[in-house]
Design brief:
Length: about 220
């Protein structure tokens, strides 16, 4: 799967995508992350990507022209297998259900806004508007990283252990169509002291009785 990110701050992504699971997935050519600098599609020597808003108001607004040209630079794909997404607080809130839908596609294109916003005509170029939640970020870059990681984990062979997908929070499993919040997890040491109070791992998890452990996990999982 290919992820294209249109941004004016391409260096933000270098460190995050060079570590851990996403790096391994790129090395195996399961996913391809393509960072596109919107400034490369400007017409002036200053690489201007923003201007004051018509009608007045605070801040600067990102121009449509370089974004349009950046999108045009991408090879045309089957529209049913590619989605162009504008990351904006005004968009539909991203969730695991949307992530599963995206994981079936061949390509995702993210437009990362900055400053006071993006020229509203950019909405004519996109398939969907997506938000991480009811809060404001400085730009769409963090949202793009979050969505790419969430979607990538659902792509076959990205995770080493398939059970990680089946048993984790927000998965639709345990013979139910509802998603659930994953059961509590523990590791060594068996007993840990906080403010002179001992906190122990539940005995059932140390019992070796797999049937009872599964029942405990089901009981402790919270369905939504």
């Amino acid at each position: 799967m290919k992820f294209n990110i249109l941004t004016i701050f391409p260096n933000i992504f270098n460190s995050y995508f060079s570590e851990s699971i996403l790096k391994k997935a790129q090395d195996k050519k399961i996913i391809n992350i393509n960072i596109i600098n919107i400034r490369d599609f400007t017409n002036d020597k200053h690489k201007t990507v923003d201007n004051p808003p018509y009608g007045g108001g605070p801040g600067m607004v990102m121009k449509i022209e370089p974004i349009y040209k950046a999108l045009r630079s991408l090879k045309k794909k089957n529209n049913k297998k590619r989605k162009i997404i504008l990351l904006t607080p005004a968009g539909k809130q991203f969730n695991q259900k949307i992530a599963k839908k995206y994981s079936k596609l061949d390509e995702l294109v993210f437009i990362c806004g900055r400053y006071e916003g993006i020229d509203a005509r950019v909405e004519k170029l996109v398939d969907e508007k997506i938000s991480l939640g009811p809060f404001i970020l400085n730009g769409g870059e963090i949202a793009a990283i979050s969505i790419i990681e969430t979607v990538s984990r659902l792509i076959p062979n990205v995770l080493g252990n398939k059970k990680s997908l089946i048993e984790e929070t927000f998965s639709s499993t345990l013979k139910s169509n509802k998603s659930f919040i994953e059961y509590p997890q523990y590791t060594r040491p068996e007993i840990f002291k906080i403010n002179n109070k001992k906190y122990k791992v539940p005995k059932i998890l140390l019992s070796g009785n797999h049937k009872k452990i599964i029942e405990w996990k089901k009981k402790k999982s919270k369905f939504k």
